[in-house]
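Help: read this over?
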Amino acid sequence: MKRTERDREATERRLLEAVGELVCESGFEQIGINALAARAGVSKVLVYRYFGSVDGLLAAYVRRHDFWFGLPDGVPDRAGLPDFLKRLFREQVARLRGNAALRRLYRWELSSDHPLVAGLRAQRERIGVELTRRVCERAGLCEERVAVLAAVIASATTYLAMLGDFCPCYNGIPLDGEAGWERICRGADELVDALFRSDGGAAAGMEDVSDEPGGIACCGDVRGDAVCGEAGGLTACEAGDCKAAADGAVGGSGCAAPEAAR
């Protein structure tokens, strides 16, 4: 490697480290080019040369450290998906707990419409939607159902990681030590296991009867007393909707019990 390349890498590394230090001290919104250059010990001209702007430098920091920007390209086969998803959520928790600057970023996102925040949020959204699509395609799971589960786990653990900076306990679970976080991660593991244990159509190798009377496409209970009013049956039926269908109420997507069951 040429000296100029090594020098550039070293300068970029110092600037990115300066971002993390300054964010922890004063937050993303207070960072300026003079403070960054001074903390890194470089000319501010190099910020523009290597990153284009202060926002470009901040975006580079986030892309390097935010867990969701570094997801693996591949998705395992269905047998390996439960462990794959559990590992993803656990690694997200570890990344947030280990990086105070990232937690500051997520708090900033909650109350800012800054173009940098909006752009990063949009990129993270695309990554999440694409990951959900690939997982569901590989496992035969319902995208709506998986998207909700992933949103609940990711948002809950993110909130608790941010809260842990100011509150040592939530709902009786300690947030200031490994034991409490292991309980949280085990809870997320159980939700993933429950998703794959459910007899949801192709997810459990069940025959696809979604176009037949009583066929429920994304639910663990095919009821013979339910008649679906739309082609394709129920698209994202939860347990409560199935029960409602059996009891004669409308449940899911255009599904109702037949007259005989009412």
